[in-house]
Amino acid sequence: MNDTSPDPERGAPEAARRRWLAAAALAAFAALAAALWLDTRGRLQSMQEETARRLRELETEAREARAQARRAEDALRALQAQLGALEARVADSQSQQAALEALYQELARNRDEWQLAEIEQVLAIAQQQLQLAGNVRAALLALQLAEARLARADRPQFLALRRALARDIERLRALPALDVAGLSLRLDGLVAAVDGLPLAYEERAAREPRGAEPPAGEGALARFGAEVWRELKSLVVVRRIEGEEPPLVPPREAYFLRENLKLRLLSARVALLSRNEAGYREDLRAAQTWIERYFDVRAKSAQAALAQLKSLAAASVAFEPPSLGESLDALRALKTRRERG
User: Is 96 within the bounds of a domain?
Assistant: First the structure.
């Protein structure tokens, strides 16, 4: 018969071994828990340190960001102030530009008006030169001056006026040329030479034989008697007239003769300037007749004066002055359009 009841001696070590295993397991678990706690604590501490470091860095970055934001705000305010100043300057410059444009327009209008007034004065002078003096050259120069000033202005509104001026210039160029100034100077030279022309009576008296001089050996009484006899013979002169003799002109009347001859030549000069051909030729004919009648035509000065008179009489001074109405009408039309505009 088997004995199945527990052995107290064998059960005691088993219980002790179990207790020891339980204590060992508990110690191992406690060690493991301590190790886990230490590891977790270390990790938490490192995480706290990292978090603190990150927080410090973030705080530093935040401070720098706030500083940069303040600097950016300051810069923005400065830029806004500069922008305001620039806007004010732009507004001032725009107002100044508008004022300058208005001033330029006003000056341009005034300049055009001055030019038109100047052109009108030049055309009036040219018209006077043609109508009063028949001076084609002066009128042509005036028209060319007006056209040159309009060409320098180079304005499209002046084209019609420039075309009218060009047609009048061509019309004046087609007229026959007459050197009025040269003819006038030649007449002035004749007027100046009148005082030097010898009278025919003076030349004839110079050619008459003088009485015989008394011999040098005779006394003073004989010479006095011969002088008295010569004066007595000069009181009554008997001549045989062969042909037409020039009239005797007393010295007092000779002065008026020369002055009247000068007046005739000056009248011819006035007729030349006014293009009065009939009066011009009549004055030259009268001057030529007076020189041939009262002056010694054998003298070189008289011959030169007669040659000048014949040359002057050969020139034709007849002149029908052209009108500058086309240019004047174009100028008036332009001024009217500007006033209406």
Answer: no
Structure tokens of 278? 């009939």
Q: Which domain does 236 fall in, by range?
A: 180-208+223-313
Q: How many residues are given for the chain?
A: 341
156, 274: one domain: no
Q: How many other C-beta atoms can be found within 10 angstroms of the C-beta atom of residue 168?
A: 25
Please indicate, yes or no, whether residues 184 and 304 belong to a single structural domain of this protein.
yes
pLDDT in tens, 273-291: 777 888 999 999 999 999 9
User: Is this model's pTM higher than 0.90 or not?
Assistant: no
Mean pLDDT across the stretch 143-148?
88
User: What angle (nearest 5°) sits at the alpha carbon of residue 262, between those of residues 256 and 263?
Assistant: 90
In a domain, 15, yes or no: no
- 261 with 189, same domain? yes
**Amino acid in the structure at residue 5:** S
**Closest listed residue to residue 154, CA positions, set 108, 100, 103:** 108
Q: Is the pLDDT of residue 340 over 90?
A: no
d(CA 254, CA 257): 5
Q: What is the largest CA-CA distance in the chain?
A: 245
With respect to residue 75, please indicate whether it lies within any of the assigned structural domains. Answer: no
Q: How many structural domains is the chain composed of?
A: 2
What sign does the CA torsion over 201, 207, 208, 212 have?
Answer: positive
Q: How far is CA 277 from CA 133, 134, 272, 283, 335, in A?
A: 13, 12, 7, 10, 39
Distance CA 100, CA 84 (A): 24
C-alpha 35/C-alpha 157 separation (Å) is 109
Q: Are 280 and 317 in contact (CB under 8 A)?
A: yes
Determine the average pLDDT of the residues in 145-155: 85
Please indicate, yes or no, if residue 83 is contained in any of the structural domains: no
Q: Are 246 and 293 in contact (CB under 8 A)?
A: yes
Tell me the per-residue pLDDT of 170-196, one tens digit each, with 9 for 90 and over: 888 887 767 777 888 999 999 999 999
Cα(179)–Cα(182) distance, integer angstroms: 5
Distance (Å, rounded) from C-alpha 120 to C-alpha 108? 18
